[in-house]
Write a structure and sequence with these properties.
354 residues; alpha/beta; D-Maltodextrin-Binding Protein, domain 2; Double Stranded RNA Binding Domain; 3 domains; 6-stranded mixed β-sheet; 5-stranded mixed β-sheet; globular; binds the ligand NCc1[nH]cc(CCC(=O)O)c1CC(=O)O; porphyrin biosynthesis; hydroxymethylbilane synthase activity; Porphobilinogen_deaminase_C_sf
Length: 354
């Protein structure tokens, strides 16, 4: 790491004031840095005496922009290098997009909290110059090109709008929006997470929010989308206590239920599982899930409502809905995706879905 190692905690000797420096690991993107700024501002309100040091690092996903995401198997692409630094005591905490967190954490790492969730929905961003012509996916003409490298987004949109075409679109938010807007770009629209655009001050580019009841069909979001998860070293009680008051319980319960679906179906962030969690009166959580084939031609859906008050209940609820998805036909769809990934493991060609 380029950042000089500081002692995380300096125990005060008699007469000295206690000084705590928290080294925060993060990716280097504008979104990741905006998230860390928000985390620091919030933690400073809770703990005015604590100092923070931002330690940005590149992840595997940042370094390899060519290999199709789903071929990696979606395990820890955004998190592995930061976690190695955490275990090596070069960092004290890591701020992750909850969406990028694998469902099982590596040895020595533990989840300290989920913070209040941003808008979890996906959105449509229209190419500059076309905004007056098209506002929604339904407005797009036959053959219009949608930019996304998420099989979940592609599969769900294909399911409802078979007339559209899809092209891979990678990079951080700024890069993607620039590629979209380039005069010679083939894209008409991009699909992005609302949270990323909200957090980086680009709300103005959103022309449609996609959701369950989007006209023409539903669009469910990725597990954890819009949430932040903060990871610490296992056994670091000081960091754990510092972060506990920052947890948003309703977010934690909803995201744990979503993650439990993912864990049960053994899917990484790059397989087409969509979810939606909505709190209803009386601490009832409505959990909806879908698994869609890459071609968008087959799908399994499931939904249930339960009163949820503890993490254990949330996890059990996610397992139940995962089982409902399997009962409704999810397994053959997942098997086909895994077989395709296995068959192309050694190839690193850019993946452009047909
Ligand atoms: N996989 C990349 C990633 N991880 C988190 C976000 C957005 C912010 C969030 O979901 O919290 C994005 C970009 C995107 O999907 O548009």
């Amino acid at each position: 790491m380029s950042t000089p190692a500081t002692q995380p905690i300096i125990t005060p000797s008699a007469g000295e004031t206690q000084r705590t420096v928290v080294r925060i690991g993060t990716r280097k993107s504008a979104l990741a840095l905006a998230q860390v700024d928000w985390v620091i501002a919030s933690l400073q309100k809770l703990h005015p005496g604590v100092e923070f040091e931002v330690c940005p690092m590149l992840s595997t996903a940042d370094k390899d922009k060519i290999t199709a995401l789903y071929k990696f198997g979606g395990k820890g692409l955004w998190t592995n290098e930061l976690e190695a630094a955490l275990v090596a005591n070069e960092l004290d905490i890591i701020v992750h997009c909850a969406k990028d967190m694998p469902t099982a954490l590596p040895e020595g790492c533990t989840l300290a909290c989920f913070t209040e969730r941003e808008d979890p929905r996906d959105v449509v961003v229209v190419k500059k110059g076309l905004e007056d012509k098209y506002k929604t996916l339904a407005d797009l003409p036959e053959g219009a090109v949608v930019g996304t490298s998420s099989v979940r987004r592609m599969a769900q949109i294909k399911r409802r709008y078979p007339k559209l075409q899809f092209r891979d679109m990678r990079g951080n938010i700024d890069t993607r929006v620039k590629k979209l807007d380039a005069e010679d770009s083939e894209y008409s629209v991009l699909i992005l997470a609302a949270a990323g655009l909200h957090r980086t001050g680009k709300r103005g580019r959103i022309s449609q929010y996609l959701e369950r009841d989007t006209e023409g069909g539903s669009m469910l979001y990725a597990v954890g989308q819009g949430g932040l998860a903060i990871e610490t070293r296992a056994g670091d009680t000081k960091m754990y206590e510092l972060l506990r008051p920052f947890e948003d319980e309703k977010t934690m319960l909803a995201i744990e239920a979503e993650r439990s679906i993912m864990r049960t179906l053994e899917g990484g962030c790059s397989i087409p599982i969509g979810v939606e969690t909505k709190w209803q009166e009386g601490n009832k959580l409505r959990l909806t899930g879908c698994v869609v084939s890459i071609a968008g031609t087959e799908a399994a859906d499931a939904e249930s409502v339960e009163e949820i008050a503890t993490r254990e209940q949330a996890v059990a609820f996610g397992k139940k809905v995962a089982q409902m998805l399997v009962d409704n036909g999810a397994q053959p769809i997942l098997d086909a995706i895994n077989a395709d990934r296995e068959a192309s493991r050694d190839k690193a060609e850019p993946w452009v879905p047909a």
